[in-house]
Design a protein that fits this description.
The protein is an alpha/beta fold and 465 residues long. It has two domains: 237 residues, Aspartate Aminotransferase, domain 2; 122 residues, no CATH class. It contains 14 helices and twelve strands. The strands form two sheets. The chain has a seven-stranded mixed beta sheet with strand order 1-7-6-5-4-2-3, sandwiched between helices. A five-stranded antiparallel beta sheet has the order 8-12-11-10-9. The longest helix has 20 residues. It is globular. The C terminus is likely disordered.
Length: 465
């Protein structure tokens, strides 16, 4: 017996993080030692005293009953006190609701306000839950607001059509671009929301991950923001408590109340012991946590320095633990991430070569080709062509076909990009049709190196486009 999904579920695109998690799991079962640069999940532990507090509260039997759907009074007061100390924003308890992680609140806020056909403004790129879990699953229509580099990764409000828009999501410091904004821009956002009667949902999960003296603002610091805005926050990034699933939403009383009404009908509140531990964290820890920031700052500096040294243009972010960099032409970010997951373990573990994309290291490529020659399946031949001619003509000019030599094809664009997949073993085979059959390829330092052609396969690979 089969059952049909609801139309709203059918409209959902694949959840990117779930797809990447699946690929990571497959690689780990193959024994590949991966450093995950995918989901923003802190690898640092919570401060020890928070863990000790949780242990104590778990042992208290009064904490094992149902809790209030909107949150325990002590926790909500701790949130209000933290906002006063951190952002100089005054909140009453009825302007605070506890969440099972901010993701839950973001997904449920549209249930309270979005009707079928209502438009919801969603930054692009952004956290997928804004468009999918919140908008599509509530029969809303997500409307993209492009975040472009030339505009500082801010939406162009003047170019945004507010007709039939019920809600707008924004997130700064931004996931994934790491962009930050000043109060002048936030004032424009508040004015736009007020002028068009739009609920402003501001995701401030990364406010406490900032560097070089920068302190991220709250939208609620902006005059009149309390008339239109709800802000989502979380203990996940602030205190390294992602698995605990504890967050909160604050702001306009009616918006918070609407979210609370939804929660009353679908959950029975956050585990009280976790709320007690969260209360202690908010009441007794200064944020951002200095030790956490120092570690993230060192990592940021290492990554920025290393990427710049191999020729990538990378800004040094003032906040978040993300780097937003351009990928090779011809790839979407999802396709490129998937390619890295497949190709880089192959290169790092089997075919070590270190190539500067600005000045290809021909000796390194030759070493790579030599290793491929030793491991390649029977019948494999390695092709060469003149990179200069290829760049000038835009075509792969294949010569040679001598074993142990290499080919180089820089900067693939959309028309000439090879579509890749894994075929029968560790080698990647190109779906681009060549006179000698599909090409075997490898990726090193983010350019593609064509390492040969296989006579054992006829015709281009059958790749889902």
């Amino acid at each position: 017996m089969t059952f049909e999904f609801a139309d709203r579920v059918k409209r959902l695109p694949p959840y990117l993080f779930a797809e990447i998690e699946k690929m990571i799991k497959e690689k780990k079962t193959q024994g590949v030692d991966l450093i995950s640069l995918s989901i923003g999940d802190p690898d640092l532990p919570p401060p020890p005293f928070i863990i000790d507090e949780l242990k104590k509260e778990v042992a208290d039997l009064k904490n094992h009953n149902y809790s209030f759907s909107q949150g325990e009074p002590d926790f909500r007061q701790a949130v209000a006190n933290w906002y006063k100390n951190r952002f100089h924003v005054d909140l009453e308890q009825d302007q605070v609701v506890a969440l099972l992680g901010s993701k839950e609140g973001i997904a449920n806020i549209a249930r309270a306000f979005v009707n079928s056909g209502d438009r919801v403004l969603v930054p692009d790129p952004s956290y997928p839950v804004y468009a999918n879990g919140s908008t599509i699953l509530n029969d809303g229509i997500p409307v993209s607001m492009p975040l472009l580099e030339e505009n500082g990764f801010k939406p162009d409000l003047e170019a945004t059509d507010p007709e039939k828009v019920k809600m707008m999501f924004l997130n700064y410091p931004n996931n994934p671009t790491s962009a930050t904004v000043d109060e002048a821009f936030l004032k424009q956002v508040v004015e736009f929301a007020e002028d068009n009667n739009i609920i402003l949902c501001y995701d401030n999960a990364y406010s406490e991950i900032s560097f070089d003296g920068y302190k991220a603002p709250s939208i609620l610091e902006i005059p009149d923001a309390m008339n239109v805005a709800v802000e989502f926050h979380s203990c996940s990034k602030t205190f390294n408590m992602t698995g605990w699933r504890i967050g909160f939403a604050v702001g306009h009383g009616d918006i918070v109340s609407g979210l609370g009404q939804v929660k009353t009908n679908i959950d029975s509140g956050l585990f009280q012991a976790i709320q007690e531990a969260g209360t202690e964290a908010l009441n007794h820890l200064d944020t951002p946590l200095p030790e956490t920031i120092q570690i993230y700052e060192r990592r940021r500096d290492v990554m920025v320095k290393g990427l710049r040294e191999i020729g990538w243009e990378v800004d040094r972010p003032k906040a978040t633990f993300y780097l937003w960099i351009q990928i090779p032409r011809g790839y979407t970010s999802a396709r490129f991430a998937a390619l890295l997951l497949v190709a880089l373990p192959l290169i790092a573990n089997r075919y070590p070569a270190y190539i500067d994309v600005r000045r290809p290291d021909l000796r390194g490529l030759q070493q790579l080709a030599d290793r491929l020659r030793d491991d390649a399946p029977p019948g494999t031949r390695l092709a060469t062509f003149d990179p200069t001619l290829a760049v000038e003509s835009g075509l792969p000019l294949v010569h040679g076909l001598e074993m142990g030599q290499f080919s180089y094809w820089p900067r693939l664009d959309d028309e000439k990009a090879a579509r890749l997949r894994v075929l029968n073993g560790p080698l990647l085979r190109d779906a681009f049709e060549s006179p000698d059959g599909p090409l075997l390829v490898a990726l090193t330092d983010f350019d593609l190196y064509l390492l040969g052609v296989s006579s054992s396969v006829s015709g281009p690979a059958d790749v889902d486009r």
